[in-house]
Amino acid sequence: MNKIDQILNRSVKQILPNKEGLEKLMDSKKIRVYLGVDPTGPKLHLGHSIPLKKLQEFADLGHEAILLFGTGTVLAGDPSQRNEARKKIAGTEIDENIKTWKSQAEKIINFDKVKIKYNGDWLLKLNYADIINIASNISSTQLYKREMFQERTKRGQTVWTHETLYPLFQGYDSVAMDVDLEIGGTDQTFNMLIGRELQKKMNKREKFVLITPLISGTDGKPMSKSSGNCIWLDDSASEMFGKIMSMADIQIEEYWQMLTDLPISKLKGLKPLDAKKMLAYEIVELYKGETSAKKTQKEFEAVYQKGAKPRDIDVNVQENVSLTEAISAFMPSKSQAKRLIGQGAVEIDGQIVKDGSVKTQKGQVLKIGKKTYAKVGK
């Protein structure tokens, strides 16, 4: 029960309908739990790691854990937290994204313990009668009352019919796999509760929902690929370490609790700089290994605390492009890159450059802001 209590508390925002019922169920049998992900892009970020880690925790306790790739739902496009409909995605792109997601998820998920399934295996086989049957269990009013749809309507923006149907298709996954529990971030709460209702009505039994919190990005806003504020799982060790060290002190506890297994008690009494270094080391070690973590921390201390120039730079930018274009990969937008250059916060080989049109040359070392270095060319 101690392990159950731990898994249902750390990095958990809410459990519906209640934590006590799920505790009792887990104590009485091995449950079937799943996490669904739509392969919409080629990269995973640290925010994705939170529900992935939670899924693995259930697998480690011996429960039947499923990582579900949304090869069917991705065709409709999840409208969660979207101001407009997602662009349609091609089948070849879906396949390629799944390959990269699986290789990145292997840093967190042990696929000897976690099954992979694809919801296209059942969603793409639904016929007209099946869809009518599923839809008959959820009112249209319930779907249209979704907050983001109401906001779009107020702004005079379009809400497409396929977007309103998305929760039905995601919800049907719970029925098709007959699960006891679904894991997902707070942005998935509406979809997961539709699944809970469908499970009750179609399979005549309860489904629990475990909601994990969303994490803030490097700018303090919710981490998302559209915001350009992500710490990616495939970032180099120095990129990952540097991004964590550059974030606001107020984010330390959030990252500490949700991204590591470090005890919260260890955080107390640490100065912000020391806490960040310990946090950055822990995360880099998890995704890049102990050797990379030690090397990156040593390099960080030499460069940023003692003023030395980095010897090994594993962050590369393109050659023969404008300085603005070269550093825009580190910025949320090109306009911010231009502002940074104009403020004299970008150097080429130790010299401040305020002209963003200057072309980069192979072998040059760029310093972007106070903490980011990059080398031009491979």
TrEMBL record:
Its EC number is 6.1.1.1. It holds the Pfam family S4. One of its GO terms (biological process) is tyrosyl-tRNA aminoacylation. Residues 332-364 form the RNA-binding S4 domain. One of its GO terms (cellular component) is cytosol. It catalyses: tRNA(Tyr) + L-tyrosine + ATP = L-tyrosyl-tRNA(Tyr) + AMP + diphosphate + H(+). Keywords: Aminoacyl-tRNA synthetase, ATP-binding, Ligase, Nucleotide-binding, Protein biosynthesis, RNA-binding. One of its GO terms (molecular function) is tyrosine-tRNA ligase activity. Belongs to the class-I aminoacyl-tRNA synthetase family. This is Tyrosine--tRNA ligase.
